[in-house]
Amino acid sequence: xxxxxxxxxYTQLKNTWDEMYNQNIEVRKQYEKITAFLKRTxxxxxxxxxELAKKLFMSQGVTFTxxxxxxxxxxxxxxxxxxxILTATEWRKIDLGIKQxxxxxxxxxxxxxxxxxxxxxGIVPADLIYSCxxxxxxxxxxxxxxDIYVHIAGVDxxxxxxxxxxxxxxxxxxxSGVSYMLENREISKRIFPGILxxxxxxxxxxxxxxxxxxxxxxxxxxxPNVVLLTPGIYNSAYYEHTTLARLMGIELVEGxxxxxxxxxxxxxxxxxxxxxxxxxxxxxxxxxxPLEFNAASSLGVAGIMASYRKxxxxxxxxxxxxxxxxxxxxxxxxxxIKYYLNxxxxxxxxxxxxxxxxDEFKHVAENIKDMVIKKTDGSGGYxxxxxxxxxxxxxxxxxxxxxxxxxxxxxxxxxxLSTAPxxxxxxxxxxCIDLRPFALSGRDGIDITPxxxxxxxxxxxxxxxNSSQGGGSKDTWVIQ
Length: 480
Fold this sequence. Notes:
Number of helices: 14
Number of strands: 23
Mean pLDDT: 91
Helix content: 25-40%
Organism: Jejuia pallidilutea
Protein name: Protein containing domains DUF404
Shape: globular
CATH class of the domain at 351-413: Alpha Beta
């Protein structure tokens, strides 16, 4: 029996790329098997699968934190059971594009903290570098192990209505979300047994093993001691910290668990001090070392930067990496690719306006209803202005704030994010999505996990996919 009720209200959005249907309202080839399965499945059965997914997430404690929510900070991460599916051809371009981009960004970070050729040659303005809050003067001239600054990256992609993938932003400081990617796949295996092998879907479960191997290879010690440094239980990504430490079989530590002695980092144990060789830190630069950055910080370790400079410990990602994921620097990444690699960018940037330039500010202000304005150091969907949703007063007040320090803001056209089918109230309905693939860099090159985290704007008509702003996620299938 065919479940026509499930598909009865699926209406494609105008001028929007739909992941499941083409322009002729035909199911795309990669979705044929899953749609055939869904049509054979009753709405009641799908509802039970949804309930099972929620129970599994709850039992696993898969949560995130919303700091602005007065009702309570811990929430179960919303999950949509219908997977987002990419073809092998689509993934190949994404894979090559991200590797190209990370390679160029790593070269850029090395350059700005050493010879600064890209500044001397006028490719990136010096004042933009030095005014960036993520530029660490303390990293000038520091020898970084194997010249790798970006060990772990999450690159946010969107598919525009032309069907092409564009880079929305580069997350290079302490990128999060990979634990949700892993958990989403485990849930899919439980609620769709047999469907993944039938669709020949590439695995993502090897991520922790690949990460651990790359972390170990960064140290010159035999059997190096690797730890994961967390800010603690009140951090929004604490669930992820505990999950990754468990899956890699390494210690999860806080700043109070570590001490620097004779320029070496040690972990406090019941048997005394144990040397630490590699630190996968989820603590921001500002809080990493109270002797050099924020003196009030209790999250980091006093003296850790001195140990790092002497080469006695490896910090992942390298301090100062944030210079390359600042939204003001994002504009220049295509130029970096051409400058360092002599290649054309495989993945395009979104057109971005620098509001410190009077003519670009004027253009944005005149077309504000078609623009989104972001803080250059913002994240999580906070502090943005979505022009098409804002009132005249909100726009006026926001632009007044921008004028006080326009170099701290950029603007982009509001794009038509692609949509994917989501199970809403027992029916399939299109919702806007993006994609965050995860890249791991090591001595043996860059590996991209085949899939990544697909974030979804569960609110009808919304373009904001951040979990902190009402978004959720879905499993991402890449066909072998």
